[in-house]
Each structure stands twice: as C-alpha cells, then as structure tokens.
## 1
Amino acid sequence: MKLLVAVKRVVDYNVKVRVKSDKTGVETAGVKQSMNPFDEIAVEEAIRLKEKGIATEIVAVSVGVTQAQETIRTALAMGADRGILVETDVAVEPLAVAKLLKAIAEKEGAELIILGKQAIDDDFNATGQALAALLGWPQGTFASKVEIADGKATVTREVDGGLETVELKLPAVITADLRLNEPRYASLPNIMKARKKQIDIVKPADLGVDVTPRLTIVSVAEPPGRKAGIKVPDVATLVDKLRNEAKVI
Ligand code: AMP
C-alpha cells in the first residue's frame, strides 16, 4: 500500500511570532522554519505503518518554496522513502493544496494519505477535509489512534468531550492529532542516508492546478498585551476587587 504524507514548512513552534510592520502577515525573513508539528506526527504514523508491514512506500509531499525541500529531507531522515516538492512562491491556500495532493495521489496510486490536523501558521484545519471531499474518499480527522486491517482503517478521533471511533474503507484520508504518537528524532546515519533519497520537483501547472489565492488578508494584528497582575493580601480583598472593580461576581 502506497502512502502519501503531507508536510508543510512553517515558522518553528518555538519562535515568538512577530507581525510585519505593514500588517500583511507575520515576519518570516531570518526566522527559523521547521516541519509543522502535526505533520511530524503524520510522518511518524506512516513510518509505523511501514514498520508493521502495512505500508510499502511512503512519499512525503510539500507545497511551497524551494527551501521546503529541507522539510521533505526531515521526513526522509525520519524514514519516508522519497519526496515530492510542488514548488511555488505563492502562499498556497488549503483548497489549492488539496487539489495538488489529489493530483499526486491519483498519479501515485496512493491508498492512504496522512496529513496534520492543522498547520500552526495559518490554523486553517481544512486541507485534509477538502482533500477527502475532492477525492470522494472517507476521512478520519483528529486521529489519536489508527489501525489498518482488511482494507479498512479504524480511526479513533478526539472530539469535544470524548473519543469517537470511525471505520473507513480504504482509500482514505487521515489527519493526525497531538496524541496519535510521539514522533522520533532522526538518527545521524538516517540523516546521512536521507541525503541520497530522491526528491522530485514539480510546479503547480504541471499538475494542472491554479494556485492563485482566493483570500485577501485585510490585516494581521498581535493580540492586545495583558495588563500586569497584582497580589492581594487576603481573600476578603480579592472578593471585594472581583465584585467592585472587575464586576465579575
Ligand atoms: P491546514 O488545513 O492549512 O491547517 O493544514 C492541515 C494539514 O494539511 C497540514 O498539517 C499539512 O499536513 C497539510 N498541508 C497544508 N498546507 C500544506 C503545504 N503547503 N504543503 C504540504 N502540506 C500541507
């Protein structure tokens, strides 16, 4: 079974994000970028399926600038077999990413596609769902457990207030939630080996997809700063302040 994993290059989760002075987005120049954390979980799950003998080949796909090859290399160092970069300088929106992934999935004959539940830069949480809809495949989103057997994927989903288990007939789309697994670190030998693995570079037009953005960002602003807190000497003062100053009780 061939498996596709989508990996996005995003601002590293440890970086304190700053808004550009013209308010059109966040500063990315000179800022550390890494694989979207949920995509690391997706890659890990794919590798585990290969280790169990369920997946035969893992193809890591990224849509983005030339440097997104580094993100693909990380997936290859973790254990993916080869990569495809859909190279573009455009900030591609979820629907267009989904169209590109659909084209690749069909070309590759993939039977399972694993994505992160959400990219931590734009927080869309839409690509996996759009992809499943475009392909007409079932989807198991927010997966915290995945089991594959007899042409079916059993996916435990993290939903509000509990867990839901769904059964999907393959081919299917799965999006990874935080508790699905703990991604491995790539070992040095595997990082070296990954250098030799193949990354094909294609353009959106090669896949017949128009990636022109449909959304216009009107403004990006930082959240308002928080006021400094105070210490109160006793409970009576606290209650008084909550009642008469904050007026919340
Ligand atoms: P989003 O819908 O943007 O929150 O992204 C959900 C998931 O879709 C991510 O965790 C990735 O697995 C995948 N994805 C979104 N954008 C890209 C991209 N440009 N390249 C590769 N994968 C992507």
## 2
Amino acid sequence: MSETPKPGNFITQIIEKDNETGKYAGNVMTRFPPEPNGYLHIGHAKSICLNFGIAERFNGQCNLRFDDTNPEKESLEYINSIKKDVEWLGFEWAEEPKFASNYFDQLFDFAVELIKLGKAYVCKLTPDEMREYRGTLKEPGKNSPYRDTTPEENVALFMEMKKGKFADGEMVLRAKIDMASPNMNMRDPIIYRIRHMHHHQTGDKWCVYPMYDFTHCLSDAMESVTHSICTLEFQDHRPLYDWVLDTLKTAHPQQIEFARLNLNYTVTSKRKLKQLVDDGHVEGWDDPRMSTISGLRRRGYTARSIRNFCERIGVTRSDGIVDVGMLEHAVREDLDQGANRAMAVLNPIKVTLTNYLDDKEEIFTVNNHPKKTEAGTRQVPFSKNLFIDAADFAETPPKKWKRLTLGGAVRLRGGYVITCDEAIKDADGNVVELLCRYDENTLGVNPEGYKPKGVIHWVSAKHAVTAEVRLYDRLFNEAAPDAHHETKTFLDFINKESLVVLQNAKLEPSLEHAAKGTGFQFEREGYFCRDLVSDKLIFNRTVTLRDSWAKIEAKR
Ligand code: ATP
Ligand code: MG
C-alpha cells in the first residue's frame, strides 16, 4: 500500500538501530492490542497506522490481538467491529486474530511458576484494607500479612481458586515485588482475581482471570513481539512488565511509548463514547458525529484520508492537542480529488422559465470532475421548471451579491444564463416561486451586452429525485469538552446543531442510484455521501467545502 516512502519517526529510528545491531535478528513483530469493550475511535487509528505501518516498512508482521481479560465489559459485537475497522483502514494482520484468552492456560502456569519462585502469593485482604496497605505517593505501603506464606500453601490455594471454591473478591493473587517502591505499580500488584463469569471466548472454563498488566506483557512475549508500542500512560507500567518477564525468563519485547492522539472538539475515550450511545445522545456507535472509525466511515471519511491524517500528525513522545480541522482538511483534500461532482438543491425554491417551451427537454452533458477527464461525464436533464436553493435568491441583496436577484442574471451551472423578472410570494410574504427568462444564446458562451453575476446550481423539477439530507457538524461546541470544567461535564457541550435534517432536498437524477457509501461533492454545498446503512435515499454531509469553524475561532 505504501505509495511513496514515508518519513520516519523516533520509533522507526530505534528499530533501524536494533536491526543494525541484530538485536532481534532483524525481525520486526508488532501488534495492535485493543480491549474489545467498545468500538475503535480515531485515536486507535493512530496506533493502528503506526503498528501496521511499521510492520510494512520493515517487512515484518503485525498481530491483531484482543486483550480480553475483562469479560463483563466485552462482547462479540465489539470484536467484529474492531476486525472490520482494521480491515477497512487497509491493514492485514498476521495469521488469525489473536486473543489473550488463548493464553489463559499458559498464563495460569506462569502464575504458578511465580508462586513456586516465591514471587507471588494469595492475599485475603479486603479491597479497603488493600488500599490502606498500599500507601500513597508520599508514603510507602505496608506488607500484607499473607506475604510470607509458603509457596506450597499458595499453590494449593491458587488451585482451589481456579476450581471455584471461593467467591468473587474473596482473595487475589499478587506479585511479590516491593511495597516501598516509589512506583505504585510495583507495590505487589494483583495479577489474578476471581470472577465467576462467562467469557465470550472461553465460556465457563475459568473463574479466575489474569489482570491486564500481567497478561499484556506475557502475551507480547509469547507472540515473539519485538517492539511493543504503546501510549505514554504505560511508561510507569514498564518496570512491572520488565519484572514479570525477567523473573519468568521469557522473551523480552522492547516497549516503546508514544503520545496518544488528542483532538479538540472531540472525545476519544471508549467510556465516554459508550455513554453517548447508552444515553441516547447519538444514534449509535456509528452515528456520523462520533469519533469512532465506524462513525467516520458512515460520515463519508475515506480510509485513505484517515491514514493521511495519521501520517501527518506524526509520532512523538510529547503530549499535544491536534486541531480537528486537520482531520477535516484530510477528508476534504481526498474527496476534492476523488469524489465526483453533482448538483443537489438542499432548500428548494421553484423557478419557472417563462420563455421556455412547456414540453421541451434538453440533456446537458457535464464533467464529473473539473480536473480529471478520466472521471467521465454525465447527463443532466433541463426543462421549464427548475429548483434552485432559496439561499441563492435575494430580493434586496447585500453588497457584492453574486447570485440571483430581481432584474439580475446568473448562469445555471452547465446550462443557460437566466434573468429574474418576478418573485411570487405566499400570504406571509415568503418567496415561493421565481419567474425567469432564459437566454437561448448562452449555452457554453457568454451573453452579449450584459454580464451574469455568478453561477448557481439547479435541478430540473420534473426529473429531480427527492432525498433526505443530513447536515452533520461537530458534536461538541467546546474545544476541550472533556477537560475539567467546574460544574459541567462533556455532555453539557453537545452542539445542538450538530445534526440538521432536510427532508425535501432535490437531487439531480443521476444520484438516485448512487451506491451506499459513495462520496460526492454537491456543487457549492460540500461533500456528501450516500448513507451506508439506510435503504432510503439519504445523504450525509461529510464536511463543508471550507472550514467555517476557523472563522468562528478567529472571532473569539
Ligand atoms: P480508551 O481510553 O478509549 O478506552 P484504550 O487505550 O483503553 O482506549 P485499548 O483498547 O486498550 O483502548 O487500545 C488499544 C491500543 O490503542 C492501545 O495500544 C492504546 O495505547 C491505543 N490507543 C488508544 N487510544 C489512543 C489514542 N488516543 N491515541 C493513540 N493510541 C491510542
Ligand atoms: Mg485500555
């Protein structure tokens, strides 16, 4: 897939060095390790592009591994959505997808080995006691009274835990490291707990489940991962991973941390995204306003635009906030090149051409793309009655008005120049129809003696298809919705105008059979795509033609 050589980053430099020194015999094995407890979001896309991108770059492999140690929050729905999203982004994982739960037997054996080495023990402190014994950042913790029990006792107890003799929470298995360590993760962390719970992969086989930290580093080791790439918050867990792998003398992948993606006007936390879904603030995980990959796809984002975005934001070790305008720019740029043009009138108003014959019809042939002849042409029908957008007419226009007004002329895109003679109004004074004249000598040539003010889009009324158009905008109107706000939560910043539904848009007939998911530039309106889910004719706005938020920001 790599069309042009991609610039490197500090991680590719580390790997190049490792390859020079032969650290992993030149092998490069990475993995993308999601927990299947929600849909993937744009932050995950950064990690996916990084991990799979590195494997591609070094002719290595990348595993897709589900870190599924927490059955109560996980589901098959999430597993399937994750596979679909990774594939859609354009990446191929090595062999079959992996599951941490595939390793539960080995992980159990590793835990027994730790106990036998005198490096783990069963602890019966209650959660409250455990917290008290743990100490604080300023004060060291205290040793558990169960810490010095014999390996034999502990192996026996651990076996009984596995057999289901005890209730949830009655006891845990802890690593025996250092209760005085300044790193809280090293203060005898829990490595196994009791959960009498069905697991989506292992069914009812287990009632003890390994903790994430213990599982994660050993799964990497068992998969011969060479470079275990993760986000910065795992830096403080690295000493624990090192301890586990060194104590058990397994293979030792090299962990490298990078800064997670933070986007303004966006939340990227599965917990918060789930709350938006569960509380009905959005239609679902794939609501086009969500920062999920499935939401972006339904919004009309292309996989390439997301990959380009991830490439551009780069990979560093310092946390920062990326402007969501960069993501919007990436899709705008990709669709500008790739999407065909079409005409759609979102807020229609009738135009009657008084001097056009009643039954006459013409077919105009127009280019699908202004810069790409290979995109071909399409046929657009023309007749006496048209629709134009209500916003393209003004009775008393502002200065520099470039559209239609009484007595003024404009060109219909791809068609004739028309002049407006009269605006017909309803009882409330709203303009409901415009009576215009067309100039038959202006097809493809300038009129003589006068100049049209601008170019507007239109559709032929009798040929138009009616569609629903959903104007999506940013879901939050606050740049940092999930930062700390005195009395508000991220839910208080939901943009009430993030979805405006137009039921009566009039589209040129070629759009009637657009395949679901196809993107178009609706001339002068923005980029839209046929909804992926509904069988009805619905178009979702992907992004406007220009960034209107930049102006709002500048005014602040
Ligand atoms: P969330 O905080 O949304 O729940 P998570 O980190 O708990 O995300 P995981 O399923 O554990 O979700 O993530 C899988 C991988 O994706 C991890 O390696 C994680 O570091 C990475 N990842 C998650 N969020 C981001 C982000 N915003 N930017 C870059 N990588 C991310
Ligand atoms: Mg996580």
## 3
Amino acid sequence: MNFELTQEQQQIQKFAREFAEKELLPGVLERDATEDFPMEAFQKFGQAGTYGIPYPKELGGTGGSYLSYILAVEEVSKVDAAFGISFSVNTSLYGGSIYNSSATDEQKKRFLEPIASGRAIGSFGLTEPNAGSDAAGQQTIATKDGDDYILNGSKCFNTNGPVADYTVVYCLTDPSIGTKSMAAFVLEKGMPGFTVGKVEDKMGIRSAPVSDMHISNVRVSADRMIAKPGEGFKLAMKTLDGGRIGVGAQALGIAKGAFETARKYMMQRQQFGKPICKQQYLAFKMAELATEIEKAELLLYKAATLKEEGKPYTAAAAMAKLTCTDVAMKVTTECVQMLGGNGYMKGYHVERMMRDAKITQIYEGTNEIQKLVISGGLFR
Ligand code: CAA
C-alpha cells in the first residue's frame, strides 16, 4: 500500500489546480448566474491533453493513470464543479463508452481521438424520461434498414448535450427482448433528425449545460455502432462504474473547496474578541469535517487505483461515489453555517458549492442505487 502520488500524478494535479485558479475562478460566480458554458476554457484545458489522460496514446490519449485523471477532476471541481462534471462526462462517460466497447481499434480512434485531444466534446445518452434509475427501460429504438440503422427516441438530462459534437446513444434493436438487444451508436451534431431539445434550468452546476436530445428518423451507418445488440447494457454499466469515480472526484473537490474557504474565513473572522477558529465548538466541527474528507479521499483513490490495476472495482466505485457525495453535501452545508450570514451570500462561494453538491448524490446512479450495487455484491 502506497499513499504517495507519483510525480506524474503530482504534475497533473498542479497543472489542474493552477488552471482552475487562473482560468475558472475569475468568472465562476458570473457563470453560476448566467449558465454560460466556458467553451474557451474547456477547449484550452482539453488541448493540453487532459481529457485523454486515462486512454492510450494509440487512441489519441496521453496514457496516464485513472488516478491522474481523477485528481484533475477533483482540482477543477474545488473551484468550479460545473466544469468538473462536463470534464468527467466527456472523459468517463463518452470516452469510457468508446474505450470499454467492443468497437474496432479504427472505430475507437475515430471516435475517441477528437475528444481526447480537446478538439470536440462528448456526451452520454442513456437516461430517458422512463429510464432513469431503471436504465434497462430504454425506449429509443434502432431499426435495421439495409446496411444502416434508423434511430428514433429521445434522451433527457444529457450533460454536455447542447455543446456536444459526439453523443453515445444507447438503444434497443428489438424491444420484444429488451436489454438483450441493447446496442450503442455514436451520433454527431448536425446529423439530420438529431437535435437538442429543452435546455434545463438547474439548482446547481449551472454552467454545465444539460438538455433533452431528440432522435427522429436518424439514419446511422453500421460503422457507428460501438456496442452490438446485447452488449449495450453491460457497456453502459461498466462505463458508469468509471463515471461514478469521476462524480466522486467532483464531489470530493467540492467538499475540499468549501472546507478551505471556511478554514481561511475562520482564521480571519473575529467575534467575541478572537478569530472564530478559536471557538472550540467550531474547531471541533472542522476536525470532524476534515476526517470525513480524508475518509472519502481514501475510498476514492482506492477505487481509481483498483480500476487502473484492472481489478474488480464496481462496489469500490459505488462506495466512493456514495461516500464522497454524502460528504460533499455535509461539508458544504456545515461550511455555509460556519460562515454565518456571509455563507448564505453568493460572493463567498459556499452557497454555490452547497447547491452544486446536491446533484452529485443524484446523477450517475442515485445514492440509493449505489447501495443497491454495493449490497448486490454482498450476498452472492
Ligand atoms: N458491469 C458489467 N456488467 C454489469 C454491471 C457492471 N457494473 N452491472 C450489471 N451488469 C450486468 C449483469 O451482470 C447482468 O448480466 P447478465 O444478464 O449476463 O446476468 C446484466 O448487466 C443486468 O444486470 P442487473 O440485473 O443487475 O440489471 P438491473 O436492470 O437490475 O439494473 C442497476 C441494475 C444497478 C439498477 C442499473 O440499472 C443502474 O445502474 N441504474 C442507474 C442508472 C444510472 O446510473 N444512470 C445514470 C445516467 S447517466 C448520468 O447521470 C450522466 C450525467 O448526465 C451526469
């Protein structure tokens, strides 16, 4: 067991931290109000190779470790959790769908390289109005037509949907046999019949664009199929295992960002003739939060390391996601309290972090679903 980060991991962590401070912090409050996606910053961060960290060089990635990628998500999320989820969906869910699939190397390179190099943005089309926690309840259908498929249906809550160049769409080829026919295709912006629907107005992660995606008679050539009928559900599940570590990293970043804001505030803020960190009740509360953060970090880095080493990590990813996101909610709520009236005001960031934290307990499998996944492995 080694608790030291490698030099490569430390370098990526430092790069992401400096990028977040310089490029994300200045506009983060404004973007929270306007919901504007920081396209320029997103492209700049990606062009440094960040979105391809966990993928091999032959497929356009940078051949780094999964933990390096996780550290980068965590660092940007300390400052801007909306950026963190756009990054994570891009790399873990879009990139993971391609990389984990049984597609040919030629297909993988074709669909992964533009994303890994930061030239294009990816999104993940699994959730539908009637297929949320029950991901098997897909109603998007792909019908064979000569060498092509015709896709019809719709997706919702699609993170990056409005800005995505590429979207992995999960669908059924034979509804009579359900998930046994689930397949996946890569659709591209501008394909006739593939359009962005309602863009959501959200409580948090406001500058991460989330929308419906409409799929109406979209003709897709078979070389865009990355999961053959019957492979799609397992591909989605496997990909979500990796995605849940990404959401854990986003949540841990939020928790650490709020904790650091409160820690600094408590050393400055004077009440009753001394800094409030000298009040033992508040100092002890911070001690508890520091311990929670440490616990979450250990679970998260362990899950990322298991994945990197090719060991089973489904339950570890679910535990990391469950813990990091619950810790993020607890820490941000306590930090708002710690800053008192100021904590409730937008300029101090912690109220935004508290709003951002909430969704981490919901997406990429609610925390109730994580308990289902963890308990499912206990009684086999
Ligand atoms: N890896 C590989 N295969 C897996 C797997 C995994 N992690 N989990 C399940 N499978 C396989 C099973 O082994 C089984 O295979 P067999 O048929 O060969 O036995 C098959 O998949 C079906 O498994 P289950 O019976 O367990 O499937 P289920 O229908 O009961 O569903 C579930 C299980 C865990 C509840 C699943 O539906 C689930 O994870 N739901 C949550 C969905 C979710 O996370 N959605 C997130 C949307 S994306 C999002 O939020 C992105 C965003 O914008 C930020």
